[in-house]
Design brief:
Helix content is 79%, strand content 0%. By secondary structure, the chain is mainly alpha-helical. It is found in: Cell membrane.
Length: 319
Amino acid sequence: MIGVIGKRLLTTLLILLGVSLIVFLLLQLVPGDPAITILGAGATAESVAAVRDELGLNHPLPVQFVDYLGGLIRGDLGRSLTVNAPVSDIMIPRFVNTMILTGAALVLCIVIGVPLGVLAARKQYSVFDRISMFTALSGASVPVYWFGLLLIGVFSIQLGWLPTSGMYNSRNPGGLGDLLSHLLLPAIAAALVPLAVIARMTRSVMIEVLQQDYIRTLRASGLSERSVLWRHALRNALPPIVNVIGLQVGYLLGGVVFVEVVFGWPGLGQQLYTSINQRDIPVVQAGVLFIAMSFVAINLFTDSAVGLLDPRTRRTVNA
């Protein structure tokens, strides 16, 4: 198992290197000059040339990329072009806020999606199964930003139950209760599509497991249906369910970009949106790298968890 994790860590490093290269090259295609972004449109040619020289923008692209990687290895993400502050000071608090939103959405996906799929599988072809899966399919087809605006319109504007935006009350910031009241709507919006996918996948896997011979044997032995369903069938269905949950976390990390913009949540997504409009390349690079690192780390954790739950996976990988 240790050897498998070591190989995956090496693969992770190679993926991050590839992501860094792709992001670096793509941002070179973004129109606009970082030096003009810093100095303003009225800057003289001499000032622009001096800033470009200071930032190393006059060097060939391979040299710039090597300098960029060297900074990453040292933990130096550069400085923001718009606020002239270390990128790490800007992005780390934003990253924490994004993880709070992603974590809350993931909890909703698991707490609602998995039981919904299990019960739908238990009552296959029933009215509950058809309604729940139709709802899940409809939810997976709804644009996240539209659903977020719908939630704001109903629960914030019409009913006035929850705040429309932000992470805390700007006038009188509270504690955990204030955070939760601001977190609920964006978490629901972010969880909509992954929850639907998890519910449908759980149903599909559970239907297959419930048709196995050992399930019939457990039922024939007099074991309660509740124990058969939740202790035995779900336990054997966990590896593919955990795998799809890990994949949906990656979707969450991408989907919260839209959710954060709609709800004004001060996370990576909102910062990326602002920095792209401002052509703040170091901040954009760092934001994409943070998301890529999170996605790869979660996949590594998911693969390890699936290996622990299903020994057959470990034997396949070692083979």
